[in-house]
Structures are given as C-alpha cells and as structure tokens.
Design brief:
The complex is a heterodimer of chains A (351) and B (234). By secondary structure, chain A is of the alpha+beta class. Chain A folds into two domains: 157 residues, no CATH class; 158 residues, no CATH class. Chain A is built from twelve helices and ten strands. In chain A, strands 2-3-8-4-6-5 form a six-stranded mixed beta barrel, surrounded by four helices. In chain B, helix 4 packs across helix 5. The radius of gyration of chain B is 17 Å and the shape is globular. The chains are: A alpha+beta (351), B alpha/beta (234). Chains A and B meet through helix 1, helix 9 and helix 10 of A and helix 1 and helix 2 of B.
C-alpha cells in the first residue's frame, strides 16, 4: 500500500469523485432495499406471522398459479387434512379486504378469520374484532370502542402488534363473526397446517396444493410484482456499481501502466502491485460505502416516519457487503493490465 | 561483478527473427564503469535489457556475481533486480505521486510490505543518498517540482538505494544540456566507485568516454574491437 496511499493523496480529487459516486449508488441501493423490505412487510407480515409449516391452497386450474385471494378450499378438504397422519393442527383462514369504520373515520383493512393460534389473534366471541395498531390509529379507536364492518357492528376486543396483508392492516374476526361480513358462502381461502406429514400424499388425497410459508408468498400477487421490480432495480444498481468501478480502475490502471512497468523493472513483484491496487480500490469502496450507509441510516430514519421503510442488517449491511464484493470483482477484472505490463518498456526513451 | 558470457538475443521480426545481440561477452568489475557506445540499432538497448534481466538471452549466460540470470524465472529475476541490480533509466521514470524521498523509499516496498524495523534504516539511507546526489532539502518535492537534472539525480539515487552489485545506466544525459550531462556523468562515476558497483553505461555522448574505466562499441549486434579498451573481454 506504499504507492497506493500516496496516489490516493496525490489524486484525491479523482478518488473523492469516485467515492462520491459509490456513496450515491450505496444510497440508492440502501433506500431501495429499505423500501422494498418495508413494502414487503406491508404485504406479507401477517402471513409470515402465521407460523404454519404449510399453507394449503385449492388446486389451481391447469396453467394457473397459486393465488391466496382466489383460492377457495372446502369443508371436505378440511376434514381430509384434519384426519391425515402426521398433521397436528389445521386452521382454516379466510381473507378479504373491506372497509371498516369508526364514528370518526373509515379505512380499508384486511379482514382475516381463523381459529385462535400462533399469528392468528382471533377474538373469543363473534361480536368482537382484534385490530392491528395501524388500523386502530387510523380510526382513532381503543379497546372497548365500536367499529362497523359491512353494516355489522363489532367491539374492539384487542389492539394487536402491526400485521399487514396486501398493504392493508389486518383485523381479526372469529369464524362466526366472519359469517356476518362474508356473503360468499365459501368455507375458507386456505388452511394453515402444522405437523410433519407426507404433504404430497395428503395434497393428492385432498385435491389441494400446499407450500411452505415463504413459498406461499408468491401467491400474493402484489408482493410478487413489487419484489420483482424492486429486486431488479437493486440488482441493476449492483451491476452499475461494479461496472463504474471497473471502468474507473481500467482507465486509472491504463494511465499508470508506464509507472507499473517501471516498478516491475525495478524488481516489484506482480503480487505486490496487485495487492497495492486492490487495497487502493478497497479504500475508495470503503469510504464510498461508509458515507452512503451513513446517509441511508440518517435519511432512512426520517423516511421511516412517512414511508414503509425498514432499517435492518438485511437492508443496510448486506447490500453494503454485496456492493463491496461486486466492486472489488469489477476492479479485479480491471487489474489484468498490471499482470500484462512489460517492464522492458521502462528502458529506452519510451516515456 | 557482471559477466555476459557469449550472449545472443533475438527478437521476432515478421516470420523470421532478428539477432539484436550476437555472441557478446562482456565483463564489468566492481568499482568500474564500462561505457557502451554504438549507432542506433546496434543492439545497445538489447544488451542493457539482457544485462538488467528484463530479457532472457537465447543462448549464453548472464552472471551477476555467482547467479546466472539466464536461468532464472521471471519471478526470480524480479527478486534479483531488486536485491542486486540498480537501473538508471534514460527518462527519469519517477512516479508522479511520490516525493523525492518516497521515490527512494519505495525500493524497500517492491517485494510487498516492508518490515517496520527497517524503516529508520531505509529513511536514513534515502536521506543520505539524496544528499549524495546534491538534493538535500528537496526531499518533499514531487517530480513536476524538479528540473530535468534534478529528476535524473533522483533516478540515480533510487537505483543505488538497495546497494546494488551492478548498476545499469541507459543514456542518462540524453535529455540534459552539456553542463548538466557532465555533472550527471561525474555523479555516476563517483558513486560507482564509492559504492563499488559494476556499472554498464550506454551513452551517445562521446565526450565522456575518456573518463570511463573501459569502453566497448556495439556494431550490428556484436562488440567491435576497434574502439574498445582494456578491462573488457571481447
């Protein structure tokens, strides 16, 4: 790093410019990651909270994908799953979006009905609802207040931690309470199953199709499209970072190829030159990513008050690590000219 | 000591090969300066390239003391260069980001990270050499802040930084006026003697030849006996 540090100091304007570009890319990646995680949370946090080993859907028609909102499972299928060997618990789950009103306000919520269990905070009677915190805040209601859903009156029995489904806050009803607001007559949308059965065999016998909780997320249309587009943007930014760094260091290395030839002629090992250059790139990357990360944390904390934004190691440290690794890979690609530099060119009047 | 023993060097030239150095033998003893002259294209640069281990000969031996550089791999040759050879380039070839002081100190980092224990010793040596070439007080100047003659002095000091056994000097006065050129030659003659290096010096400037310990002339890749002097095995 002897030459690398001195070059960083000598050409600090150029390196500062590059570090700024890296910082800006890190800000973009960090913001997109935080936003993607926030939006994902608003889409599927209730589903992730079910703690089910399998989520069972009605078998879709040929060529159709699983869809939580369009799936409709029957009482007979429920009985088949309940009686299957290795199945410990089966909870029917019904979901629909509806308007809920208090005397002061109204908001759209995700109505959910099931039997009580992990992640399904169903109230004990059919005239009560459990309301997640955001919905309670929007409606200005507290425990004991009254709300109206589809013309039926319910008492707020509990305010639960925030849980979301398809960007709407979750509100829980009992199975009997569900019948007051649902006119479809369907038994349930899906089953939440716990146990360790031969899933394939039970699915065949019940004419259903099941998936793990994570695998079921693709059955929520808005999640798939959001995660896909935001993920693609993040991936493109990673690629752009690697390309920008590679392009800069390609030009930089070409500019100093004569110096590299001189150092080789003086007896420098190629390994020492490569370590020097990679170390130089690492300093620029660390500085750029560090500044970018600080901005993401700072602005992210502010953005979190008005946007679905998640600050976690997954949305900060992981993207930073990926950007660092990809950046170094791009730089490593650019450094091949170091191995090719011919020390013989240092002799004579070549410079 | 450097001893080129029946060295032949060829380079590709289209479909054939051109012989740049043809069965040349040459010996340089410690504390002496051997001048190498010859017209353009006579093979002087190729001779220097093979003497400085930057090119492997097609045949023959390049003895640097007891090591035959012709038998070394590129990696081993690099180690030999940084430990036993000093090269004074035609252009000063200084690194633009480094101060005069660091141009010398970098020689201690060519193999990778240098030991901290040696830092003080290296710093003292660099300061001593800069003073020896008349650049005391110019340690912190970068190349663009120095004159051509000063840059060439740093170039010479850098070549001597690792106490080389052999000093290869490639037309050191080509970019300098007569007076500064003479000063540089004076410096090389004095330092070669002081540091007991076997010096091979290529020059076009015939005015300096009488002061050399020996002179050889290259013509068409061979050593010509016409103007060569004693101490040289032709």
């Amino acid at each position: 790093m002897f030459v690398a540090w001195r070059e960083l100091n000598f050409a600090r304007g150029r390196f500062a410019l590059l570090a700024s570009v890296v910082a800006m890319l890190m800000v973009l990646v960090g913001f997109l990651s935080g936003l993607a995680a926030g939006l994902a949370s608003q889409n599927v946090s209730s589903v992730l909270g079910f703690k089910a080993d399998q989520i069972v859907f009605a078998k879709p028609a040929d060529g159709q994908k699983l869809s939580l909102s369009e799936s409709a499972v029957t009482r007979e299928q429920f009985d088949t799953w309940v009686s299957a060997s290795g199945v410990d618990a089966v909870r029917p789950l019904s979901v629909q979006q509806s308007k809920m009103s208090s005397p002061d306000a109204s908001t759209t919520v995700a109505l959910m009905s099931s039997t009580r269990g992990k992640g399904t905070p169903v109230p004990s009677d059919d005239s009560s609802v459990s309301v997640s915190q955001t919905a309670a805040d929007e409606l200005g209601v507290a425990v004991g207040d009254r709300v109206t859903i589809s013309g039926s009156d319910f008492k707020v029995a509990a305010i639960t931690d925030d849980a979301w489904f398809s960007h709407t806050p979750a509100v829980w009803l009992s199975r009997d309470g569900w019948l007051k607001v649902d006119r479809s007559g369907e038994f349930a949308n899906v089953f939440l199953v716990n146990g360790s059965a031969d899933w394939e065999a039970v699915n065949t016998s019940a004419s259903t199709q099941s998936a793990s909780t994570l695998g079921s997320l693709s059955a929520i249309g808005s999640f798939t499209s959001e995660a896909g587009s935001l993920g693609m943007m993040v991936a493109l930014l990673f690629a752009i970072s690697a390309l920008v760094l590679s392009a800069f260091f390609t030009v930089w290395t070409m500019q100093r190829s004569a110096d590299i030839a001189v150092l080789k002629a003086l007896g420098s090992s190629t390994r020492a030159l490569l370590i020097d250059s990679l170390g130089q790139a690492l300093v620029v990357l660390t500085a750029g990513i560090g500044v970018g990360l600080a901005l993401v944390l700072g602005f992210g904390a502010l953005a979190g008050q008005v946007l679905p934004f998640v600050i976690s190691p997954f949305t900060t440290l992981l993207p930073a690590l990926v950007m660092g690794v990809l950046g170094l890979a791009g730089v490593a690609f650019a450094l091949k000219s170091i191995t090719k530099a011919n020390p013989l060119s240092a002799l004579g009047g070549n410079r | 000591m450097i001893h080129l023993d029946h060295v032949t060097v060829t380079f590709p030239d289209g479909d054939s090969r051109i012989t740049a150095v043809n069965d040349v033998s040459l010996r340089g003893e410690p504390g002496t300066v051997t001048g190498i002259i010859g017209p353009s294209g006579s093979g002087k640069s190729s001779l220097l390239a093979v003497a400085s281990t930057l090119v492997s000969p097609d045949s023959g031996h390049v003895w640097i003391d007891d090591v035959d550089a012709a038998q070394l791999t590129a990696k081993e040759a690099a180690v030999l260069r940084r430990e036993r050879l000093g090269i004074v380039f035609q252009q000063s070839n200084l690194l633009p980001a480094l101060s005069s002081f660091d141009q010398l100190r970098v020689m201690n980092h060519l193999g990778g990270r240098a030991s901290r224990r040696e830092t003080n010793k290296v710093n003292a040596k660099a300061a001593e050499l800069l003073a020896a070439v008349g650049l005391a007080g110019q340690e912190h100047k970068r190349p663009h802040q120095l004159s051509g003659g000063q840059r060439q002095r740093v170039n010479i000091a850098r070549a001597l930084m690792n106490d080389p056994r052999v000093l290869i000097v490639d037309e050191p006065t080509s970019a300098l006026d007569q007076q500064r050129g003479a000063e540089i030659i004076d410096l090389i003659l004095r330092l070669s003697q002081d540091m007991n290096t076997a010096t091979l010096l290529v020059t076009h400037d015939l005015v300096h030849l009488p002061r050399m310990d020996a002179v050889v002339e290259m013509v068409d890749g061979r050593l010509s006996t016409a103007r060569s002097t004693a101490l040289v095995t032709v």
